[in-house]
């Protein structure tokens, strides 16, 4: 465990006794590198996110593999997405019509310059979210996942994720799923390590991030 991770875990444990019990139960060793096997570039990461929306990890990997096989074992470029026949792409990869449309929207935004991918790493979290949700098919949940797992931003709370809210409900003994606003209040003591707290919550459920929208 790195010194930075050890310090962050220590601060989470000190700041919230309820979360401390969860961390001790789950164990630090359960927090793995969730970016392994994912594209390292911004565009590829967003393509992978679109493919995986509303799917299990296994299904998302299978469809993403089919997509990359169509393009020589790599994610398609924006130009290749727009040049491909939408129906042929959908059939070859097993994508829904909606997701093909989302991939085309992403490609269009990149090529016309309305989404400047090279700037995302320098923007604050809220501005990254605003830039991404302007693309059809990229909602706040996808933007949160991009911030957490690709840009490695340390203080993101994925309140639109069912697993996070269910984890909060169970950990804090709530009678029902908290609203996003309620989750924000509960998570206030976790700052500036809310991303790490989310990882522990997902692991406590043995869950994969899943959008509620």
Biggest sheet details: none
The total of helices stands at 12
Q: What is the N-to-C succession of helices and strands? A: HHHHHHHHHHHH
CATH topology of the largest domain: Endonuclease III, domain 1
**Class from secondary-structure proportions:** mainly alpha
| Amount of helix | 55-70%
- What separation lies between the terminal Cα atoms? 35 Å
Q: Which blocks of ≥5 consecutive residues have pLDDT under 50? A: none
CATH architecture level-2 label of the largest domain: Orthogonal Bundle
Morphology call: elongated
CATH secondary-structure class of the largest domain: Mainly Alpha
What's the overall average pLDDT, rounded? 92
Overall tally of domains: 2
- The Cα radius of gyration reads 18 Å
Tell me what portion of residues adopts beta-strand conformation: under 5%
CATH superfamily membership of the largest domain, which one?
Answer: Hypothetical protein, domain 2
**Count the strands?**
0
Task: For the structure shown, list the relevant keywords.
elongated, Endonuclease III, domain 1, 12 helices, 2 domains, 213 residues, mainly alpha, Endonuclease Iii, domain 2
If you had to describe this structure to a student in words, what would you say it looks like?
The chain folds into 2 domains: 3-34 and 155-205, Endonuclease Iii, domain 2 (Orthogonal Bundle), CATH 1.10.1670.40; 42-150, Endonuclease III, domain 1. Helices cover 59% and strands 0% of the residues. It has helices at residues 3-15, 17-26, 42-52, 57-70, 78-83, 86-93, 97-111, 125-133, 140-150, 162-171, 180-186, 194-205. Helix 3 crosses helix 9. It is elongated and about 55 Å long.
